[in-house]
Structure formats: structure tokens, C-alpha cells
Amino acid sequence: MPGLEDLYREIILDHYRNPRNRGELPTPPAVRVEGFNPLCGDEIVVFLDVADDRVQDLRIGGQGCSISQSSASMMSAAVKGKTVAEARATIRAFKSLMSIHEQRLDGADDDGGASGGASGAGGGGGGPAVPEAAVKLGDLEALQGVVRFPVRIKCATLSWNTLAQGLDEAQEASATSPS
Amino acid sequence: MPGLEDLYREIILDHYRNPRNRGELPTPPAVRVEGFNPLCGDEIVVFLDVADDRVQDLRIGGQGCSISQSSASMMSAAVKGKTVAEARATIRAFKSLMSIHEQRLDGADDDGGASGGASGAGGGGGGPAVPEAAVKLGDLEALQGVVRFPVRIKCATLSWNTLAQGLDEAQEASATSPS
Amino acid sequence: MALDVELVKKDFAILDQLVHGHRIVYLDSASSSQKPAAVLDAMQHLYETTYANVHRGVYAIAEESTRLYEEARTKVAAFLGAASTREVIFTKNVTEAINLVAYTWGRTNLGPGDAVLLTEMEHHANLVPWLQLKAERGIELRYLGVDGEGQLILDDLEQLVDGVKLVGLTLVSNVLGTLNPVAEVARVAHAAGALVLVDGAQYTPHFTTRVAELGCDFYGFTAHKMLGPTGIGCLWARESLLEEMPIFLGGGEMIRDVRLDGFTANELPWKFEAGTPPIAEAVGLGAAVDYLLAIGMADVRAHEIELTRYALESLHERHGDDIRIFGPSDPEKRGGVLSFAYKDIHPHDISQVLDEVGVCVRAGHHCAKPLMRRLGVGATARASFYLYNDEADVDALSSALTSADRLFS
Amino acid sequence: MALDVELVKKDFAILDQLVHGHRIVYLDSASSSQKPAAVLDAMQHLYETTYANVHRGVYAIAEESTRLYEEARTKVAAFLGAASTREVIFTKNVTEAINLVAYTWGRTNLGPGDAVLLTEMEHHANLVPWLQLKAERGIELRYLGVDGEGQLILDDLEQLVDGVKLVGLTLVSNVLGTLNPVAEVARVAHAAGALVLVDGAQYTPHFTTRVAELGCDFYGFTAHKMLGPTGIGCLWARESLLEEMPIFLGGGEMIRDVRLDGFTANELPWKFEAGTPPIAEAVGLGAAVDYLLAIGMADVRAHEIELTRYALESLHERHGDDIRIFGPSDPEKRGGVLSFAYKDIHPHDISQVLDEVGVCVRAGHHCAKPLMRRLGVGATARASFYLYNDEADVDALSSALTSADRLFS
Ligand SMILES: Cc1ncc(COP(=O)(O)O)c(C=O)c1O
Ligand SMILES: Cc1ncc(COP(=O)(O)O)c(C=O)c1O
Ligand code: FES
Ligand code: FES
Asked: For a 10 Å CB count at each end of chain C, is N or C smaller?
């Protein structure tokens, strides 16, 4: 199927068939965040263990299409072990790969096109900001072809929006609880 | 204006220019009934003095177009002095001239077309029914041309619907008050 | 006389084109149908010859525009077997029709603790308006369950309906295709003193609708699924009910008189039609009704049964256990809506791969999330048929599934 | 560059016909405008090449249909000077837009004794929704009066606005043509802590609309008066307000998730768009916006001023005291809506006689009964202009009035 090669690259299909970091983490200490895609009804669950301003561990649950699953899988590999600031920079870099540019400063994203996605974006606090240009996306670049399929952009960004929300919640939790 | 001859016959314009029975009657003993035409905002007021099952007197107030005014004027001349049963038969005969046929027995009319007119039709009690075929419409026949102008049918029937309601009210009043 | 699909197809310009180099195979009519030339022409003709706002104009084109608008209502009334045009309210879609009932009848008659009985297979359009009332006023919602064949479980109907003020259900499920025994449910509901609201969105396009025989009190459908344009739907209800109901939207058309301190409502059906109505859309809907009647609803339905039977058989034959088709297996007991799971490929991936060869199917929750949860899936792929589909379309779907398999396994 | 009316007329097939043997002179655009070929073609083209339901399809024509629908929203957002497409809600007409505000913001924020300030010149669309709230919950309604020239009386504005939660007013009166100083009213209203709702039904078709400069919080308009199709209107509101407001109609599109016991709402703007939206109608509206922008709103308005000036002068010149034209005498301070009384001939009779020579004017209360009472008339005849009208049309009106005079005197 020639027209679809852009969308379903080999590396994407590989992450889809063999997803990394699937599973759950005990909460607490981890936070559990859900993301919905109202277009299709899919849900992604991100379990996120943040300590010392670093993503100590994360796991992916829920269900979705090949694009959302492989994007989540690649994301998990990309941000595990990173500082919160690096993770946020990765989110921004990925979104800009998806041609989504933060329009506003109040933390809401503006995906354009059809509705959906969990709210909360890559803005906000958490250590010194890392410039997104410094971020290497590596395998994630394979997802670039998704941009040609507007409806599927939501699939690719679903786990990322959920992660962003998870980072917010983890940081709030650590701000309010004694650490 | 050739196309309009059917609508604006000489006799209609005469009743329009010189309306009969304009004015008011003291209430009580008369009843006062208002009819609205929501299409145009016009209101007809009928003052109706019914005693001994007979329309002793009636007067027309309110405002409206040439068709509604002349129809009301002709109506007043046609039913003044008539028994309630004869008046009701005249209403039925006029409505059938307007191509309106009572569809139902519950007293609501079904004018078809656009909305409007006071409710209450020519059905109901009040002495022995008079067959409508027996009714002579005379001058009123001039209004037949209105049928070709559907929107104006509401104009022609406005006063008649109001009269019908007035007859109902007058009879109710006489039924509840000692006579 | 069987439907001549080849002839029908000629009326639909959109079906005569290539998508990604392949003949378009449109299998998403349950979501929205395509429109025949007769419908588009009727609207175009109105706009090009006699368009004006309705109901208030004395001049010739306004009279004609009004006549055409009201003539559409007369056509719809006849198409539904309504007792009078007063019972036919034009809305923007069936969603608004159901909301109209929830806002007017519902907010007059339903208070804390009052119960409404729905089904687990309802479209969101017949769930959310009642969930809103639950959130706002604490009404109780009960649900008829769905069995493994996709049929309503009616064993405990009498028990569930006890004390209920309204039963709301769809005639044909937009996911399972299930044709529900509405007349039977209505009998039990009425015996228990409940009113019955029927969502006919998936029924009226394919069946002869007779509201009296269905025994319902409220009935809604939407034009865009039955060859009509977007922007118009319809609520039918018994006249006495409509008379009792308070008004919904306020504005022009729906009033008899307005003063600075109050207003009086207009007669039926205009009482419920505030503002400039969907004039051209009504004319288009009227043309859709004419088109369907010219073909004959019996033939439309017979064709649907035939094609559904072919699809069920041929898909099972070719794909065996790889395909799981939801809903009743007897084509007589269902509409031409086939939701399916194929291997463990996600429905959106299926739809994406199918699109590559011109086959249009819907993937998702089909606005029936509670049913998805009941079926234990997040989404399904759904192929749905209408009078312009034929066996070749089913074959194209079937082959495309094989390609999807090759890509993802 | 002035408008070339001859060229414009060519885009409107309906204007190229005879009525009762006379060239049609359409002077009822304030009620509803005619539609140029570009608008009809855009809708036809959608239906014939890429129609499908929006927002949920992965296949090519559904993606394109969604893109076109959302592109229309982008066009409208730019046309209004909105900050974001999230602020642009498609409704079925402006009446629904105002009702949406009354049902959601109104029912959240207005209780017994709360006051809303309206004007005596409002269309029923901006009266009845508030009268409903008055009847339902005892809110207080206040009104800005209208003076002899048809201008709002603003002397007691500060007093009237005191303690008011919402000020609702029309930008251009559909009866008097009056252009209201909305920005000024909004300043005073905001200083008093009130929100401002503006009915732009008669403004957006003729002026450059800049919601921010108007300083309003809610703004509504309707497509069919601005060259667009029936079946679609629009509510604009500040995003933060829309975020706070509870949902209105419940159903598909407007939800994020639905469970049997509750639901969560979707993001803006879809949160307020329940059910299948007016897809083709949005595309038509987008084409109307393009058409108007290609001509230029400044030219559209300049043409309106010019034609209104010619009409005021020539009608007064020919008919002297026989004609009484309501509203401001300065064409710069009004829209091209001319309500008039002619001798004592009833407006419906005038309209009927005018129709006989092809001249289409509206007669009646124009859905502004309180204003009619204020003017001391039951109805008026109303001629209204748009970009396809010219001086010859005004002359035809003027001559036809003379014939009416001959018939009735
Ligand atoms: C000032 C004004 N507001 C509201 C409306 C209502 O518009 P619609 O009927 O399209 O809702 C109109 C037109 O009739 C109008 O002129
Ligand atoms: C069963 C059912 N009910 C309601 C609807 C809603 O229809 P609409 O979006 O036209 O209001 C649909 C279609 O989406 C449906 O299939
Ligand atoms: S289709 Fe649901 S996330 Fe891709
Ligand atoms: S126009 Fe009002 S009654 Fe004739």
C-alpha cells in the first residue's frame, strides 16, 4: 500500500507490535493519568514516577490504534530517566514535529483541527527550561509522516498530552506533600 | 393593476373606505373579543351583544388591512340580528368559501398554510344547527378572490374567527349567569 | 420489483469518482448518507428562482417559498403517518429534537427521583440530554441491557418500567444494527403509565415509518441520513402532548404576540420553531422523501436485507474467525449496519488502510460509548449500506481487509 | 472603488427573472438576502465531491469534509475579528445563538430579581429568551427607550444599567435601520459590571465586524441575511466566558466521554455543537464570507449609504408628506432598512400592490411588536437594500407607491 508508507513506517509498526514499558506502577508514589481521544474513544493511561525532578519510571496502559500505541511506546523510551525539564522539552519538540505550536501562555494547547486530546501542555515549571532545539527525537522522527493525516495527529499526541498532564500532577503532588 | 382585480373588487374597497358597524359596545352586557393575526400584527376587536340566542348588536374595532377591514364590515352587516345558530352557519359558510373545511370536531380550526388567527371555530352549541348550504353570503362572495392569495386568507378570516370566539364566550357567560 | 442499484448510483455524482486512484466505495451511510441530484436540484432551484424568508411575506416569491416549506412538512407528515402537520416540528437535527423533549416536557415533568428508562445501546443523542437532567435535578436513569446477540434484554422490562415516566429507545442501533421491538416496549411502557420516545435516526431512512403503529409518543429523525441535506431534523409528537409542552427556544415565528412584559406562544407546529427555519433544507428533505417514495420503502428495505445477508455470509466465509461481526445474525432482524472487529487490528487502522483503496468505513465509538464498554471494545469499524450499495462494494471491503491483515501482522 | 452593481447582479440567478411580467425588484434583504452562485456552488461542490459526516472519519472524503467545515469556522473567526476559532460556535440561526446564552449563561447567572437591560427596538429573538427567564424565574427586564428619530435614549443609561447583569442590544435595528452606539453602551455597561450581548443580525452583512472594538461579550449573527444559506447562524463569545458556561444541547460531538451515569463535555467550540452540524451550510457561509471580502466590506457599506441617501431623498421628493420614513434621517447613522408608512394604506396592501409590479417589500411587525407599539403603528412596510440593489430599484418602488395610491384612494 504505497500511499500509507509515510504513516506506517517499519519502526512504527515495530513499536506497535512490541510496545515498550507497558504496564502499571503502584500509586503512590506514581501518579496515574488518563488521556481520552473523544474522536475514537481511545484511552491512554500513563503511570508516572517522578522524584528528584526526574522521571524515575513510567508505564503505559490503555488502548488505541497503531499510531497512538507506537507513539506512546517511543515516548516512554525517550523520556524515561530524563529530568522533568528535559521531558517537557521533548514534549514541545514532539509537538512541533507534529506541526503544533503553542499559541498561548496559559498552558492550554491548541491542536487545531478536530477536537480531542487531554488538556495541559508542555509549558509550566520544573527546573530550568531546556530549549527544544537541543532535544534529539531519534526514532520519534518516524512519526513525522503522521502530519499528512490530520485526523491521526490526535493519535500521535494523545500520550504526550497525557504525559504533560502527569508531569503537572506529579509536580503539584510533590509541592504539597512533604518531600 | 389587472392581476389584483380579483382581490380588490369594488365592493371590497367600498366596505374598506366606509366600514359598517365600527365602534364599541358597553361591556357587559356585550362581550369584547380580540383576534390577532401574528403574521402582520393586526388586531380585530369584536364587541358582541348576544341575548335570547340572537346577535342583538355588534361593533368592530381594531386595525388591519383592506381585506380584514372589509371582511369584518361585511361580516357585521351579515350577522347582525341573526340567531346564534344562523351566525354560526354563516361563519361555516364563509370559511368554506375561503376553502377552509373543518377537519375536526374539537372546535379547533385547521387553516393550513402559515400560522395565525384567533382560535375557536364555528362548531359548538347554540340552538339547532343551520345547514351552511342554506346560508346566503351575498356581498361576501366578493371575497372569494382572496383564495388565490393564500397569505391574505388569514386577513379575510380574522374577524370571523374572532366572532366565533365571541359567540362561545357570550354563550358561556349566559350559561353561567342567571338569565 | 428489486432495486436497480446501477440506475440509483447515477443519481449520486459523488459516487462516480476515484479516491487514491480507486473507485469510491461509500460504506458510511449510517453516519450520513449521500444526496441524489433530485435533492440538490430542489434546493438549488429554490435558491435560484423563488427564495425568500417564509411566513411573513405577501409578495409572490415569499408566498411560494412559504408554500414549499410547508409542503415539505406535509410530505414529512405523510411519510411518518402523522395525524396532522401540526405534529411535525422541524429542528436542526434529531439531537435537537430529543433535547427539545428533554428541555420542555422533561423539565416540566421530571423532578428529583423521577425515573427514565433508556437502553445500553442508545446513541449519545438519547443519553446526554437525560444525563443532563440527572445532573441538574437528580432524576434516576435505568437501562435495558443488551445480550450477546446484540438484542435488548426484555425479561425484566415490566420491573424496570415500574414507576418510570419516560422510556427512550432507538428503533435501530447505529452500532449493532439491532431492530428493537418498539411496539412491544411501548405497550408495556404505556401500561405502566410511561411515555415513549423513539429515536428513529437509523430507521426512517430504511423502513416505512408509521408512528401510530409504533405506539410512541415522541419520534425523532434526521434528514442527512435519509438522502436529505444537513441542517434539518424532525420531532414528531402527539398533538395533545405538544400543546401541553412549554415552549423551547424563544424568538420570531414561535410567538403570537410579544409585549415588553410578556408574550404568548404561536400555534403548532410553529410554537417550537424559533427564528428563520432551515428553509432550503426542508425543501431538500421533501425532495428526499419524494425520491425514497418513488423507489418504495419496501424495496429499499428488501435491498438492505439482501445486501446485509450477502455481507454477513461472504465476510464470514472469507475471513472466518478473523472477523467478529456484532449484532443479530438474522438480516431480517437488523438494519444494514455492520460493526466488526477484525483480528486485533485497531478500527482506525482498518479504516485508514481501507481508505487507501477507496473504501469508506467509519471507525470509532459511533457516539455510543456505553455500548462500547458493554461490548468490551474501545471502538469498532463499521460498514453501513444504503440503496446505492451493491455486492461489489461488499467484495471491495472484504478484499481490503485482507490487505490490512498483511500490513499489520 | 465603487461597487459594480450590474456585475454583482449577474451572480444572482434569482434576480434575472420576471414576476407577474415585471423585472423582479428584491427589496427584502433585511428579512433574508439572496445567494450568489459562489455560495450555491460551494455547497453543491461539497455534496457532489467530498461530502461525509465530520469529525470522526479517517477516510479521505470525511477528512476533507471536516477540513472544509473547520475552514469555514476559521473564515468566520477572521471575519469577526475573533481571537480564536474556539470562540466561534455554529448554531442554526442567530435566534438559537441568543437562546444558547439565555439557557446556559442566563440560567447560571440570573435569578429572581436579577436585571437585564434591553432596548425597545429589539427583535423578538432578543426579547423572548429573556421574557422566558422573566416568566420562569422572575428576572427583571428594563428597556432603553427610542426617541422620535429612532435613536436609543441614552440619557438615563447609567441609571438603568445600575445593578444590571446583562445588557442586550441590536447593533442595527431591523425596523428603523438605526445604528446603535454599541461601543459606548458597552463601556458604561462594563463599568457597571454588566456583560454585553450584541445582536449583529443586521450589522455583519453590511459592515466590517470587529467584536473586540465593539467591546461586547457575546455576539450573534445569522448566515441567511449575509448571502449565506438558511440553517446556520453563529455565536461568538469570549473564550473564558464560554469555558465557564454549562453545556446547552446534549448529544454527539459535544462530549468527551459518556458513561451510563454521567458525561464530560468536549473542548471549545465543539462543546456547544451537539449532533451533526450544518456542514454544507457552514461551507456555504464560508463562501459568502469570501464573496463579501472579495468585494470589500467598505464598498458594501459605502454602496448602502449611497443607495439609502438616494432613497430617502427621492422618496421624499416624489411623495412629500404622503410618505413617513421611520428612523434616522442621516444615511451615515443607519443601515439600508427603510420602514415607512404611506398615506393610510395598510402595509400589507402596499406590499400586495407592489408585488403586482415585481417589487418585493416586507409588510408587518418585523418581529418587533414592542417597537411597533412604541411607534404607534400595527405594522410598517419595509424596503431594505443589499449590494445587488441600485437606484432603478428605488425608482421602481417609488412608482409602485403611486399606483397603490390610485387604487386605494
Ligand atoms: C435584528 C435581528 N435579530 C434577529 C433576527 C433573527 O434572525 P434568525 O431568524 O435568522 O434567527 C433578525 C432577523 O429576522 C433580525 O433582524
Ligand atoms: C441512532 C442515532 N441517534 C441519533 C443520531 C444523531 O443524529 P444527528 O447527529 O443528526 O442529530 C444518530 C446519528 O449520528 C444515530 O445513529
Ligand atoms: S484512533 Fe484512537 S488514538 Fe488513534
Ligand atoms: S395584513 Fe393584517 S389582517 Fe391583513
From this structure: N
